[in-house]
Amino acid sequence: MQLSEIREQIIAGLHQARPDVPDIGGATRIVQDLELDSVAVMDFILSVEDRFDISIPLDRVADIVTVDDLAQVVERLGNAERA
Amino acid sequence: MSIFDKFDHLRQTYDSLGDRAHNPFSVSFDRIESATEGVLGGRRVILLGTNNYLGLTFDQHGIDEAVRAVQTLGTGTTGSRVANGSYAGHGALERDLAAFFGRRHCMVFSTGYQANLGMLSTIVGRGDHLILDSDSHASIYDGARLGHAEVIRFRHSDPDDLYKRLRRLKDVPGSKLIVAEGIYSMLGDVAPLREIAAVKREMGAYLMVDEAHSMGVLGEHGRGLAEAAGVEADVDFIVGTFSKSLGSVGGFCVADLDGFDILRVACRPYMFTASLPPSIIASTRSALQRLDRDKGLRTQLMANATQLHGGLRALGLEVGPHISPVVSVALDEPEVAVRFWNALVEGGVYLNLALPPATPSSRPLLRASVSAAHSPRQIQKAVDLFGEIGRELGILPAEPFVELPRIAVGAV
Known about the structure:
Chain A is mainly alpha-helical. Chain A is built from 4 helices and no strands.
């Protein structure tokens, strides 16, 4: 799956979690800009893992700040699993 | 600019909970009178938030043994077991625990937190995989962070989700260790351990169960959820604590696997900390004997848990899904929860307040823990007070609901 497609799907998921925030993009910071608490972030990451059939190790979750960061991690893990 | 600026957000939240006398996170007892009563701000309160499940903190034999130990062996060991040597009691307690759980090996740690920190940071390493329940205790998460294994989470108490995650790792080399808890400390819910054990067998993983809140509580002999669910043979490591049913402080891990003892010189949270003092070892050994011998304590504990869970549920409050000694009431608004907590203390009942994000589902919890030492009258007083305050705060209607059927922990 292309990075842009992954990003779009993540953004669609975030729109579901925060329907009141109109402009979510690649540079949106998931915790700070969307004001999700740690439980909501964890639920969102679990749903992303299901959507792409991957598991994101916790140390990599810690490095994710923006939507683009998450999309890149998903792309790399997806490719690694297919390899 | 201060080094503490990074805590500004936390400071605001903490300060918003009220001054020292009314802040649920700065409770300081004037004195403790018994396993079930104390004095807080000059007011006598029922202790309903202690994890003192068997009520053994004032057990006379335990006190006598601790006094004898402190008089004959001194107040502390002043060093680690590896560098400064073990006392006879350390080994004796390890043999007692191994025998109690029917396992060959045991290691005792200085706290329950350190038991998880030590085991999880050591037994899996680089190239291995830790698969944690998403609602795991902080000590499990911290142990995972201290070590070098790759850490992933499965949805809380969801064996299908666990299976899916292990399936993704099927052809990946390295040991896989699943971690679950017997009773989860926030809602008192019990893990579906039989199903988790079946996944473990099928996928060839190791399984660790933290029985901190279930030792002395579940199982015919009090060995915890693994015993109650009939899957002890599938559980490779059991960790637990002395600070709940055993009424002191410390932690342990028991196992049957060959080679376990090498951990004594590999596990840093075991090696680089002072060992437990003789008085603690003595009272813990005494409490373990009582736990093993006196099944009536568990019967009374579950009767008390049933009374509190059923009473709060009958009022119309939202309690956890299982009857266990942890009975939590979920509320919606943190501000209301803080007012509720203060009113309970003022009315003579002390319990714990847990606020998100330290709670599952982002909801505040009034968390009670029942003891075998509580009298039915004390429990009833707590239930009545919950009803009174709930109605005052508009959480409950004027008349109580009809009692609903419940799921018993004994059915797991």
